[in-house]
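REQUEST FORM: STRUCTURE PREDICTION
Request ID: SP-0412
Submitted by: Lab K.M.
Chain count: 1
Length (residues): 456
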Amino acid sequence: MFNQYKEYKKLNKGWITSMPKHWKVSKLKWLTTIYSGGTPDTTNDDYWENGDIPWLNSGTVNQGFITEPSHLITESAVLNSSAKWVPKDALVMALAGQGKTKGTVAILGINATCNQSMAAIVPNEQDVNNKFLFFWLDSNYKRIRGLAGTELRDGLNLQIIGNINCPLPPMNEQIIIANYLSNFVESVGVVIRKRLKLLSLLKEKKEAIINEAITTGFNQESEYENYDHDWLTRLPGNWNLKNLKFVAKHNQYSFTGGPFGSDLKNSDHTEMGVRIIQLQNIGIGDFKNHYKIFTSQEKADELSSCNVFPGDIIIAKMADPVARACIVPNFDDRYLMASDGIRLEVNTNLYNVKFVEYALNSKYFRHQAELNSSGSTRLRIGLSTLKKLKIAAPSLVEQDRIVEKLNYIVSNIDINLEKVIMQIEKLKEYQNSFVSEAVSGQFDLRNVPSINFTKS
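STATUS: Completed
RESULT:
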């Protein structure tokens, strides 16, 4: 589709192994001014109240193009801290941060100050175009993260960033590439946003169907009993509404919480052994298998009351959302739950395990959990409180029928959800690949008209 440049040269400049013959390479520190900021004293209200100066923390880089600050600080805060001004159109990069934040880069749409966990990257306008530089750094996000080290706590620093090699086309060519990619990314973004909207609608449909079935049994003609709860207004007259503790088997540890934090420390983690179920593993009706840590057989035996087994339900004490639950899979013979988990072994003589999982993740149960949780920033629910929450259920025969029908409907929706997710991932991969090839000179965009991806 695109022509290549006529001549290329081989290089050994880190990630740059080949580029058009007329391009150059330069370290970032020679093309920009790089510095970090600071955080004003958080205990001094004079720095944080009634301020009008934008201040950024590392989380704002996830916006890509920053137009809103994390907070507003006062002039006194700037004068009495290491917070520094960063001009509009400069770049900022997160030096640290949880999740995917570290190494993420963004362009400033406002003049702002920043904290010490961000690097301000101010391009020398005669040397490098800010958008071209953004696309280069953004396309090498994973490589940049790798420069910090392999540990999650390892951070980037200004020296590491300054030594990053950057391709350097002539300025007019940088502008052509940057403008083309800006249009391209926006065009692809339109398609991705449409897919995300469809994804959201499918999830809403799935949730609505589950919520309806779990409180009506697909039978709209039932005779209903009315309730005056905030979280439930009616149920079929032949359904029961009982405390969750009565759903558990009559065993000592059938409904129990995880160990105290002091009983299971980081030093107890091992490379192999008994897998520990963390909050990160507990999804909404879905066991998240990507996060894996282990402890020894001996430690799991020592904490036998906190062992969890396939077919049990594991419930999260902490948001988000609070009290979400999933059935423990049979990947292993047994597990050990962490301190923020709750094990529920269902009495299968009276309850269908899958029905209980659906109910725990339903709208009416979550409403109860949130009303009875504590915490201002992140909700938390205790075991004793959870046991008192109500679950609605018909006879076991009726539960089995509801689950069979729900499983069929939900599986079909999940197939469509997976298709949309794959479409979104392929679009993102295509976008990232195209941008990476463009900024590294794999094809020549100088005489290529802009395209509208949505119509191609």
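NOTES: The longest strand covers residues 8-13.
Reviewed by: T.R.
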